[in-house]
Structures are given as C-alpha cells and as structure tokens.
Design goal:
Number of helices: 15
CATH class of the largest domain: Mainly Alpha
CATH topology of the largest domain: Receptor-associated Protein
Shape: elongated
Length: about 375
C-alpha cells in the first residue's frame, strides 16, 4: 500500500480508530484476534486459499458476533476486496492490523505478518491478565473492608449504642469516639457517595480532554509503585507495537504515528508528536527520543545499536520482553507488599471497633464484680 492510501485510511478513520483503541473498548476481541490471526497464518502457510480458510475458522467459532465478522470478511473478499480491505470493512480490527496485513499482502509475506499479529495479541492478553491478576486481590480486600465498615457503622455500632444507653453509665473514650464516628458517617454517608458519583461522572465525561489527561497522568506519576508499573506497562506496549510494525515493513514515521494513536498515555503521545517531526527533519530515532524521560538510557542505547545494524524490529522485540519481565517482577513485589499491609489494615480496623464495643461490657462486669 502506498503513502497516498495510508493517508486516505488515516484521514477517513482517524477519529473512529483513535476512540476505539485509546479507550480500549475493543478489549473483548483480543482473544478472537489472536486466535483468528494464528489460524489464518497456519492455513495460508499450508496453501489453503483465504475464502476456504475463513470457512474453516468459522466452523470453530461459537459466538454469533464472531461468525458475523467472518461473514462480512468473506462477503467482502468474494466482492473483490483484499484481506486488509475486508478487515477494514468490518470495523472490528485496529488500524495497525489493517495496515500491517496490507503490507504483508504487497510483499508476499502475509503468513509472517499474521504470525506477528498473533504473537502481538498473545503478549497483550498475557500482559492484561497479569495486571488484572495483580489488582484483583487488593481491590477485593478493599471492597470487603469498605462493606464491612459500612455494615458495622450502620447496624452493629447503633445496636450496641442502644444497649449502652440503658445502663446510663459513662463510656470509655475509645467507645465514645467510635460511636461519634458512626453517627457522623450515618449523617454524611450519602454525601460521600454523591461526591464520589460526581467525581467519577466528571472523570468519565472529561476523559478525552487534554487538561484531564494531563492531570491524571501527573497524578499517576506521583504514586510511587503505581508510577513504576504504569511506565513499564506503556514501555512494553510501545516496544511491542513498534517491533510488530517495523517487522511488517511499515515506515518508521507511519509506525510512530500509529503508536501515538493507540498507546493511550498522554505524555508519550505528546512526545511522539515532536519525535515524528524531528525524524521528518532528518534526525535519527535514537536522537529524537533522547530528550524525553520516558525513554530510559537502555532504550536509547539499544535504539542506536538497532539503527546501526538495521535490526530495530529485533531490538525492540527484545526490549519488549525485558520490560515485560521487569513488569512481572514489579507486580509480584507490589502484591508481596500490599497483601500484608491490607491484612494488617483490615485487622486493625475491625479489632478497634470490636474492642471499643466490648470495653463497656468488660467495664460493667468489673463494676458488678467489685460490688
């Protein structure tokens, strides 16, 4: 596909694809994309024509949406479209999928490109599972803690408070503090929920605005553990995508522009805009990425080596694996740190409430024993 066709695709579908990929609304199709590209590569390499290949793949799909997508692809190919054009018609595939397959068709390396796309989505799925697995336990514990606290503040503590009032005795300071906290929570609980709802709604509405994206990125960069995991995630994604596009013989500037559309990290998007301009003016990639903190010294040095030996795709594939391994270590370290902290936090909160509720009972028992 020539540069004019690139520009046509980019101008016609930039807003659509940017929206879909940036917000990751197409996440559920990752497994289908991985399976589809893998089976397509295998059958095409075996000499099966594309139309027959799509029929075979369709026989293994159980979801109606997947069968509908395959039907659209087959109809487009029967009507004379290429595979890349057929994928574009479905509007179910990312722009870099379409463009890399188009390159594979032009160069006669379609099966190789399809294998690369399959590996790309395999790594993407693994990375997503890795992050979800790391966050699921802390989130579950926090939700359980919040629900337990709400239940205690609304039901357990008021019940004990009614019992204590019948004795007309003085309560220990800890018990009085917990009861006061419970009464305050019952008064302003709905206000807190309303504020949270307003914040979440505002964030959702403003999520595309530059001011909000700048603020959210700056906020993430100020949280120590989250910052490291976030940066490594985007570095892995950047290297993985660039390796795929370069290996598919997509021009470097076009590859960087595609990454800018799909990366979803605002500081890197701004940096890539300037990097593309610098490359257009004659600078090398290693020189263009040097001023930006996102690209660490290792990435800059390896990029320089890749340019000298003309193996940028291999270099960035290795960098992707390295950053992925570093991300795995960071996530495991975060889990090892968060688990005991959350357990201690939950234990302390529940323990304080229970002790505060039983202190008056113990005090009453001691007074009765003294009498």
């Amino acid at each position: 596909m020539d540069s004019e066709k690139y520009e046509m695709i980019d101008s016609e579908h930039r807003s659509f694809w940017s929206k879909e990929i940036t917000l990751f609304s197409n996440r559920k199709s990752y497994s289908f994309n991985c399976r589809f590209f893998s089976e397509l590569a295998l059958l095409i390499e075996a000499g099966v024509d594309v139309h027959k290949t799509l029929e075979i793949i369709g026989g293994t799909c159980s979801k109606e949406s997947e069968n509908t997508t395959l039907k659209l692809i087959k109809e487009a190919i029967v009507n004379g479209s290429t595979l890349s054009e057929a994928l574009e018609i479905t509007r179910k595939f990312a722009k870099y999928d379409i463009m890399t397959i188009a390159i594979g068709e032009e160069t006669g390396e379609l099966s190789t490109v399809l294998k690369s796309l399959s590996n790309y989505y395999t790594k993407k799925i693994a990375q997503r599972k890795q992050i979800i697995g790391a966050l699921s336990y802390p989130i579950l514990v926090l939700i359980t803690t919040v629900l337990s606290m709400v239940f205690m503040f609304n039901y357990i503590i008021p019940m004990f408070e009614d019992v204590f009032k019948r004795f007309n005795g003085s309560l220990p300071p800890l018990t009085r503090s917990v009861i006061t906290l419970s009464e305050t929570f019952n008064r302003i609980g709905w206000v807190i929920l309303l504020i949270l709802a307003v914040v979440i709604t505002t964030a959702f509405i403003c999520r595309k605005k530059d001011s909000y994206r700048t603020f959210s990125s700056a906020l993430i960069e100020r949280i120590p553990i989250v910052k490291d995991i976030s940066i490594l995630t985007y570095k892995t994604r950047f290297c993985q995508t660039l390796a795929l596009l370069i290996s598919s013989r997509v021009h470097l500037q076009e590859a960087l522009r595609l990454i800018k559309d799909v990366i979803g990290y605002y500081p890197l998007e701004k940096a890539l805009s300037k990097i593309i301009e610098d490359i257009s003016s004659g600078r090398s990639l290693s020189e263009a990425i040097t001023p930006y903190s996102f690209f660490d010294r290792k990435m800059v040095s390896m990029t320089l080596v890749g340019e000298e030996v003309n193996k940028l795709d291999v270099i960035y594939d290795q960098l992707s694996n390295q950053y992925s391994n570093e991300l795995d270590v960071k996530i495991k370290s975060m889990n090892s740190l968060l688990e005991p902290i959350l357990i201690i936090f939950v234990g302390v909160m529940v323990g304080v409430i229970l002790i505060s509720m039983y202190l008056p009972i113990f005090q009453l028992g001691l007074n009765m024993g003294a009498q």
